[in-house]
DNA sequence: GAGTGATCATCT
DNA sequence: AGATGATCACTC
């Protein structure tokens, strides 16, 4: 077992730690870290992600930054079924709905977060107890030209609609790789956005998510090599 | 409320 | 069965 708590000093060290976890059931990792193991994720949706953050020494917190800012790496766990297909979309970051005039893809939060991602697959069906799910081989990924092009097209299209006051028209069907969906504590959570007439409206906070077809493809591209 | 970690619950 | 829209826990 690698040393928890210590922050990795280099990307290679981080990757080594992640590789040492491969094959381990989540319950074993949790026990080593003195963490409770829930029977299901219904009330602990972030349990797996937070367990891996703790194990790999990621900075906890709610700052809109990468998990390892000094390394330029974002950590993401991704649930896979037995066929290595993603069971869920991947949350990237919240979407700005106001003051977006000067934003560009190059400086966007989406591009920053996805510029380098350490993917930690977690294998297990939805009905499998979290503790029994297995940690898979990690993948350090940077979007290739085609992937970045796709992400950029989607981001620009979605952001244009938002800037035009059409956020309420955007559904999860927009975009090939990236999609916009609600991201909130519940349906009563509201925030300001631009309305159809250029005025302010109240709407649900939104987040950018990677579609499963995109993450499935990027995982396949690497693991089939 | 806004951000982090995400999966749940329901509809098609 | 897979995707969409809704929701859970926690921190600040």
From TrEMBL:
SMART domains, A to Z: MutH
Q: Which residues form the DNA mismatch repair MutH/Type II restriction enzyme Sau3AI domain?
A: 56-154
Q: Which InterPro entries match?
A: DNA_mismatch_repair_MutH, DNA_rep_MutH/RE_typeII_Sau3AI, DNA_rep_MutH/T2_RE_sf, Restrct_endonuc-II-like
- Highest taxon of the lineage: Bacteria
* Compartment(s) of residence: Cytoplasm
- Spell out the molecular function terms from Gene Ontology: endonuclease activity
Task: Tell me the leader sequence span.
Answer: none
Entry keywords, A to Z:
Cytoplasm, DNA damage, DNA repair, Endonuclease, Hydrolase, Nuclease
* UniProt xrefs under Pfam families: MutH
Any idea what job this protein has?
Sequence-specific endonuclease that cleaves unmethylated GATC sequences. It is involved in DNA mismatch repair.
Family in the record: Belongs to the MutH family.
The entry's protein name is DNA mismatch repair protein MutH
Q: Which organism is it from?
A: Oceanimonas smirnovii
């Amino acid at each position: 077992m690698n040393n928890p708590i210590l922050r990795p000093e280099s990307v290679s060290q981080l990757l080594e730690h992640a590789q040492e976890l491969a094959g381990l059931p989540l319950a074993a990792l949790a026990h080593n870290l003195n963490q409770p193991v829930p029977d299901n994720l219904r009330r602990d949706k972030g349990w797996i992600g937070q367990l891996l953050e703790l194990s790999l020494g990621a900075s906890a917190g709610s700052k809109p930054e990468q998990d390892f800012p000094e390394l330029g790496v974002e950590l993401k766990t991704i649930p896979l079924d037995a066929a290595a297909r993603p069971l869920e979309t991947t949350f990237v970051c919240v979407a700005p709905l106001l003051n977006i005039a000067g934003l560009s893809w190059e400086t966007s939060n989406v591009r920053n977060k996805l510029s380098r991602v350490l993917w930690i697959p977690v294998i297990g069906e939805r009905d499998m107890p979290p503790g029994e799910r297995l940690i898979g081989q990690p993948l350090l990924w940077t979007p290739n030209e085609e992937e970045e092009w796709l992400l950029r097209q989607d981001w620009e299209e979605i952001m244009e609609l938002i800037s035009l006051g059409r956020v309420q028209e955007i559904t999860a069907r927009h975009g090939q790789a990236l999609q916009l969906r609600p991201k909130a504590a519940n349906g009563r959570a509201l925030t300001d956005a631009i309305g159809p007439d250029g005025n302010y409206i109240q709407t649900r906070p939104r987040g950018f998510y990677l579609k499963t077809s995109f993450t499935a493809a990027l995982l396949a591209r690497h693991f089939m090599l």
